Amino acid sequence: MNEMRQVEVTVIGAGQAGLAAAYHLRRTGFEPERDFVVLDHSPGPGGAWQFRWPSLTYGRVHGMHALPGRELTGADPARPSSEVIAEYFTDYERAFDLRVRRPVDVTAVREGGSGRLLVESSDGMWATKALINATGTWDRPFWPRYPGQETFRGRQFHTARYPGPEAFTGLRVVVVGGGASGTQHLLELAPYAAATTWVTRRPPVFREGPFDEEAGRAAVALVEERVRQGLPPRSVVSVTGLPLNDAIRQGLADGVLDRLPMFDRITPDGVEWKDGRRVSADVILWATGFRPAVDHLAPLRLREPGGGIRVEGTRAVVDPRVHLVGYGPSASTIGANRAGRAAVRDIRRLLAERAGEPVAA
Fold first, then answer.
1. Strand order in the sheet with 278-280
2. Is the dihedral of CA 322, 328, 333, 335 positive or negative?
3. Distance between CA atoms of residues 238 and 105, nearest Å
4. 191-232 pLDDT, tens per residue?
5. How far, in Å, are 5, 43, 164 from residue 161 at the CA level?
């Protein structure tokens, strides 16, 4: 536990972004356990996917992009995505011999002297020349706080612990959140619930027509600009809007997606607004998103006054040894793949420069 081990690169997290980075490290000549190590706190392969609710089948997953070098083929669309993707990640780690260490909790990353960073973990200490942080957001669900919340006599769930629609049978449910998970949960549980109410801070924006490559680049650019300014990243969905598909259209027609503005307080038996309107509820489901899980980086003082970490590409501006993948504009499966490749390219350049070697093009 107290042994100090040295590597060139440490990857924290083995979700999509972490595995993509590990693949590119391996592909460019870095050896696992000798040159780099991958630390993952989850009990098994699969990243955040392994924790998704059972009713989210693989056929309902939106935009799952294959990891680099190995396609996901032949998956049964009726199987839970948690099972399909966990098996795919397991096969991927084995195929490329990535030797992910788990479960390992990283508690802090500090300045280690002699140009190295010190990674403190439940697996001991690692002195590393560069760090790829791929910890995602799943471990930091965002729970808004509202007056009276502690008095509510019903149950409160967050998307991170969504139990599936059957758990809401015969109950009055308030769903909070205007993103993809909020609408998906609402449409799924409405046939089971006694009543549903949908509330959001801002009116939802539904997007019609195809979402082409140009629109995708424009959306990512907006998220990227916030990260460059050192502001907390917003999700790509927050700037793209929700796709107006058949399920959404039906939900609008049926009145399930009849949105109300955010309530002002929570009461023991429901929620209420300043104008006197009240809704009784047995359950409040918070589909309010997640925040980046980067508290372990706090000793490096990477945060800007705006609350985020300023990033150029994947590199932390304050410390070029640190790369954040799956953060901000790369918080999508295809973005994570690209970010993993970009981070490895930058790190190879950094290590070559420090060793006084010629930098490859």
1. 265-267, 270-272, 278-280
2. negative
3. 30
4. 999 999 999 998 988 877 655 556 666 666 767 777 777 888
5. 36, 17, 9
